Amino acid sequence: MTVSGTPAAPGTAAPNTFAALRDQLANAAVAFAGAPGAAGDILAGIVDDVDRALSERLEIFPVCHHSPASGLAMVRRLRDKQPSVIYLELCEDMRPLLDELRNCRLPVALQAFATDTDGFPAAWAPLSVVAPITESSAEYQAIAYALDTPDVELVLVDRSTDHVFQWSPESEQPQQPQAPSDSEPPEDDGLHGAAVGIEIGDLRPRFAELEEHLLHHGKVRHWSEWWDQYVEQPLANADYDTYRQVMVMIGSLFRRLRRGSTVEDENRERYMWTRMREHLSANDIDPARALYVCGAAHAASPVEQFGIDSDAPFEISPRSATAWHYGLIPSSHSAIEAQFGLAGGAVSIAAATWSKGLRRSALQSFQLEGQQGAKKRARKPLLPTAPETAVADQLSGFLSRPPVLDPLDEAELLEWSVDIVRLARRNGYLASTADAIAIFETSILLAGLRNRARPTPYDFQDAAVTCIEKDRVPGRRDVRRLCEILLGGDRIGQVGYAALPPLARDVLDRLEPLGLDLSKRTLQRALLDLKSNPELRPCSDLLWLLRRLLPQDALRPIMGSRGLGETSIQESWDIGLGKYQRSLVELGYEGVSVEQVLEQRLRRAVSAPDATAAVALAAVEDALVYLRSVRLADELGARAVELLAAERTVDDAPVVLRRIRLLLNYFRSTEDGLPAWCERFVTAGYAHYCTLLPTAFTAEETGPPQVAAMLGFLFGMENLALSLGCDHTQLELAVLQSHPEAPAKVALLWAARFQLGLLTMAELRERCDAMLANPLVLPTVPQYVSGFVQAIDPAPALKPFVVELLSKAFGTLPDAVLLPWLPKLITTLKDQAGDLIPGLVREAGRTFPGALPAVDAFVPPWSVEFATPAAPVAAVASGPVSDLLAAHPAACDALAGLLGLAGGWQEAGPTGNREVSELLDRFPATAAALATRLGIVAAGG
Q1: pLDDT value at 834 more than 80
Q2: Average pLDDT in the 573-590 region?
């Protein structure tokens, strides 16, 4: 504050300017409370804050973000004062981005982004900070004035983006306020993502009781409406002194009534004043030619570093080692509302109020040269400034007189009423001229009930909802959303080509052969005939890469696919890169090309602390499919071997099995064959799963799908593993050491023993028949069946047996048992073995007759008696059998060679070779069963 007796600088308040108001408010507080107390201290403190802010030699311009009143006051003040230096409350490291605003269409947001954090909790990554900019905001007017006016310097003085997170409590990640519950979810609220928002002039009371009190007595529904009615409208045409004093007063009031810690806000204020003093001193700047633009709450700061005459020190901590990337991303009115907790349509209504205020005041706003989406107009020259005088007390008069109510503008309200009915009819509502009249009259009625002569856009919204939206919403938009569109719409910004990062520009350049305008926010269809136009193959590769890196809705393949060994001939795409420009910009922070970004992501994925073998195998597949990099695939595959050997659980066994099978099949189809890492993966997996198999069978947390996948790996890869030096005995011992209790796992164990030859089909059939005959076991039969179905993958020979088991169950169990049992069977199979059921159905189709007449004569294969009496060897080996062997000697020679009986079996006489006769003598049932299957009846049988 200026020292008493010192002349006040031009444009500042003289000492004791507000003494009379201070005494008046103190006396009113005493009269109201009956004695001096907290109310008097608060009111006196507010006046002191106003006096202190206006007495500062460096002129403080208090603002509220996206406030049309602040924007109008800024235009007037810049034309009157014409400052040579503007200090702006915005992250100081975002300064280079401001020069790129002229290449964009507003609204856009300045963004700082970091994927790799150093010095912050890992759970916070990725870090993102955005600062949205709209044309009606006071800060944009200051930016446009400073960048397009010669010899004007723009200095950002707020904490850096790194300090935003440094000053956040480590116990919780910084979060943004949510939109009010009574506001409709905006359509484009994802443009800012989960970024932390930097807002100039956060003038919302963090005191729930105060906000509720203001809304109740102001007869409004939400804070945005209260602010528009009681602050925006009165200050839209107010003189500059009145505007400053009222804004500082409001900021001081909310600051003093704020609950919770204010340490972060005070540190920001210390930071800004320290930076401004350093700049003023280093450049020998006259404070009278400078302007400090900050939030109204910061203008009423109580910190000891306040003012350029303060000598209180403040140590600014160094930034962390985190590498920050900066860029511009598209924004929208609805995204700003969602991020900062404003009511739906508040920013659109503010933009409409801004345009109306410019027309009413005959002001020309400041605009960057070449600004996209802006109307071209001759720039109004800056006139010489008039000498400034000391500030008088305008606050007393503003508080003492009733607000000036705008008269009813019938033409405007009538135009709104007609246009909303027309818009509602286009969106499926049964609206008519009578509804337009009703909206007009209801708007006036609601405004009168709320003590205002002129209906506000919020009164008009309520009236339209009441008169048009009867019982349902026929289309995608309700009437409140239609009113927002009518009053200004959800304006969506766009970042120009020149302001995009190199990666985004590279993507647009490489997709240029498609002949599409990728800046449009609508979906565009691209047809690629890769056979006739092979030059489009690079575009196809890039589209699949972007499909892998960007949100799924940004690019959608309608026709064509991309996988290991796949090559499309024709492709069709729906491309919406214009709508997802933010994601493309953030992709540019990670590298200079999409190939580099994907390679870095794959390396990070396999190196992460929670990486698994399944993740590494997926990375190998992506490296082959999208990058066609064998070198990278080998590196990632080697990491997969390490991860598999280090795993202590088998939760990912199904994924590992599916992916390694796919990769093995792919490599076997290539010229080079299996790489070395695949061989190591198979051998390591064989030993790994053999070791964990007994534990997995008994562990409750390991489900049957995981055990089935382990068996599928062991049996499916066994031939390759044995050829690479593994020991089959290890698998046999693992199965013999397994003793499960869960029914599904018991079935899997039986299947594994059958596959190893430790359990015959007759023994397996006997166990299952006993299970169906035991009433105590029947409730668990669905789980046994589920285990057998999952065993089809490691033991495909069990498919006919599973069909037999189900057929026996449905054919022998009575309805009283089968009907309660059936739903559990269906749900069990659906949950645990849904992908294997189609193969089982195909097996059943091959087993049962395909025509209805053949059903009566159908004899199930399992009903034939396999344990037939032993037939004489001579009889079995003679007659039709001898004729069959003589007709196909090559097959018999091959079988005899495998049995070590090669040569001489035909010359031994009618009974065949002695060893063959002895073999048939030991296994007569097998010979009889084979003869029965071939339709040959043994002689004498």
Answers
A1: no
A2: 88
pTM of the predicted structure, to 2 decimals:
0.72
Least Cα distance to 351 among 480, 443, 485, 481 occurs for 485
pLDDT tens digits for 428-481? 888 888 999 999 999 989 888 887 777 888 888 889 988 988 777 887 788 888
Q: Amino acid identity of 28?
A: A
Considering only CA atoms, which of 354, 349, 458, 234 is closest in space to residue 450? 458
- Residue where a domain stops, chosen among 588, 620, 653: 588
500 burial level (CB within 10 Å; 0-12, 13-18, 19+):
buried
Sign of CA dihedral 654, 658, 661, 667: negative
Say if 727 falls within a structural domain: no
The predicted-structure confidence for 871-889, as pLDDT tens digits, reads as follows 443 333 445 556 666 667 7
Question: Tell me: the pLDDT tens digits for 296-335?
Answer: 888 888 889 888 888 888 888 888 888 888 888 888 888 8
Q: Residue 742: CB partners within 8 Å, gap ≥ 6?
A: 700, 704, 783
- Which residues make Cβ contacts (< 8 Å) with residue 664, sequence separation at least 6? 674, 678, 682, 720
On whether both 202 and 315 belong to a single domain, the answer is yes
End-to-end Cα spacing for the chain: 122
Same-domain status, 314 and 442: no
Tokens of 913: 């070779």
Is 668 in a helix, a strand, or coil? helix
- What amino acid is encoded at 578 in this protein? G
pLDDT in tens, 518-531: 888 888 999 998 88
Taking the mean position of all CA atoms in its chain, how far away is CA 119?
24
In total, how many domains does the chain have? 4
Q: Tell me the two tokens of residue 920.
A: 């048939």
DSSP alpha helix (H) spans, 699-740: 704-716, 718-723, 728-736
In whole angstroms, give the CA distance from residue 102 to residue 108.
11
- Looking at the structure, do residues 426 and 353 belong to the same domain, yes or no? no
Domain that holds residue 562: 500-588
**H-helix or E-strand containing 559?**
strand 555-559
Tokens of 744: 């599904």
